[in-house]
Amino acid sequence: MGTRSRRVVAVSVAGLLALAAVAPTFAQDADYLQRIKDAGVIRMSTDPAYPPQSELVNGEIVGFDIDVGREIATRLGVDLALETPDWALITAGSWGDRWDFSVGSMTITSAREEVLDFTQPYYYTPAQMAAHADAGITTLDDLAGKTICMGEATTYLEWMNGTLDFGTESPETTPPEGAVAVTRPTDRDCAQEWGLGRMDFEGWLSSSTTVDAAIADGLPIVKVGDPVFYEPLAAAFDKGVEDNDSLVAAVDGIIGDMHADGTLSELSMKWFGEDLTQKVDQAGATAEAESMAPAASTEPEG
Domains of the chain: which residue ranges? Predict the structure, then answer.
C-alpha cells in the first residue's frame, strides 16, 4: 500500500512537470497587449454626454472619439467595448482593470502624466469661452468678476485656477480678473442648464467643438472672444499597469499611421467640419489674447 502511494505521487509530480512544459504560457507571460488580443476585445472609457466627441443617440454611443477608438480596435484586430465611468475617475488613474484605455479627448498635462501614460495627440481643440445669449457679454473683459461654469477635473478648471501645466507648451493666457469657477460633472451640463432656463452662472468654458455643438442644438449660447488656449488631446492608459508598454506603443503607432494616411483628418471633417488634427502653437492663443489688450486697458479697473 505504501509503495503504491509513492508511485502515484511520483507519477503525479512527473505529470505536472510534463503539463507545465507543454501548456500555453500566455496567461503567465503575456503582456497587456497580448492579453487583449487573446480576449479579442479592448475596453474603452468614454463620456456619453460630450457631443460631438461622444454622445448617446438612439441607444448607441456615437461621435468622433468613438470612431477613433473603433478604428484603433480594428487595426489592433479586436472588437471595441465601451465603458462610461465619471470623467474624474478616468483622469485619476488606478482604474483597477475596469477598462483598458481612454479615447475621450483627454488633454496631456504634467499632473496627469504622473498617473497616466499617453500617446501622441490625435487632435487639438481650442478652449473657447461662451456666455448665455441674453447676458449681454461680448468680450472676455465682460466676464471679469462673473461666475464661469466648466466640467470637473478638466483642464478648463485648472486654467481658471492657475494650475494648468502643459510643460513647455503651457499657455500664457489668464482668466478674466476676479472670475469664479463652478463645476458640473461634464462640460455639456453647463450648457444644458442654460437650456433649462437656469442662470446660476454667466460664462461657460469648454472646447470650441462642444460649444459649437451646443449652439447647433439651439441652446442660447454665444462665443466670447478668441480661444484662450489649445489642448493636445491623446489616448490615455493607466500607468499603474506594469506591462502596458507594448499596448501604449501599439496604439501610439496606430495613431501615427492614422495621421499619415489621413484617417484622422477625415474623421475630424466628418464630426467637426474642420481639420483639428494639426498641432497649434500655444502662442496662437497668446497672440489672440494680446490683440485684445489695448481695448482691455481702456476699461477702468475694478
Answer: 30-297
Q: Residues 167-178: pLDDT tens digits?
A: 767 888 999 999
| pLDDT tens profile 208-227 | 989 999 999 999 999 999 99
Written out in words, the top-level CATH class of the domain with range 30-297 is: alpha beta
For the record, the C-alpha cell of 27 comes out as: 496567461
Query: Does a cis peptide bond (omega within 30 degrees of 0) precede residue 232?
Result: no
pTM summary value:
0.73
